[in-house]
Amino acid sequence: MKRGKRIMVVLAIILGAIIFLNLAGFAVNKTLFAHELNSVTPYGKIVDVNGQKMHVYAIGNGSGSGDGSDNGIGRQTIVLLPGFGVALPSADFGPLMRELSREYTVVCVEYFGIGFSGQMKTARTNANIVEETRTALSLAGFKAPYVLMPHSLSGIYSEYYAAKYPEEVSAIIMLDTTSTARQEGKNPPRLVYGIAKLQQECGLTRLTYRLMPPAQKEENGYTVKEIGDYRLFAYHVLNDTMIDQSLRTLDSINEVSAMPFPQGIPVLKLISSQSLEKVGADYQEKHLARLGSAVQSQTVEGSHFIYQTGAAEIFDLTKAFLAKIQ
Question: For the whole model, what pTM was predicted?
């Protein structure tokens, strides 16, 4: 056999092995793990929003009482809104929710496409996400005004919410949120998500997560259940709803950047030291300037996911900020 043919045979064998392993992984994933999320009971309430289920989890005195501004003992309602790609926000926000619940009623809303919420074919625009959030809060028994506490990408939706319904937002406490100063560039190509979905379906995502230490740690206040549940949901994190949200990111930013931010709403932006180092001070300064004179900022040591390690510090900063603006 000639050298060229031998190489072709070897390559064919390797390609065949790769295809076989992917098909085997796909079959195992579909057979053994397709329904594993059904074994986890939702932490909070499931409400029907536009014909699909949406998960709202609340803790603290008065949670679910139906009064967002007073909850029986004068407590404010803080609404936590997750960043993009967080597989199970109700678990990921666990330590922060417990800290905040010492003084406030704390509500975590899981958007369509993540956590215990279902998927949604409707476009993931600012308007749709905000209206779905308002509806879910109302159906879960809460009333505005709210203190919004968005992380990362949810800062965009919070600013949209405040611009559209300023009477429903008493303050915003931003957890290392995305800047809404106008941005240029491109969203990730759809092909990238197609490949990632294939990897997830074949079990490669599961294997990768198993090799990585969890971001949620007991020493930072997470329970064993939250750590386990988050990992389980992370195996299934990617779906069409989530992809659509990502592909609309630049459009969402630029839509909000064209909307004046209401100057009567106090804002505290907590900026992670990691983000400050990676994107620079100019990125943050332009965002703060857009938000106006009522904005305050504070740098918090840690990664972009500052709430995973800094729940106690966030509680202290929140308490001081809300006491000051009352």
Answer: 0.86
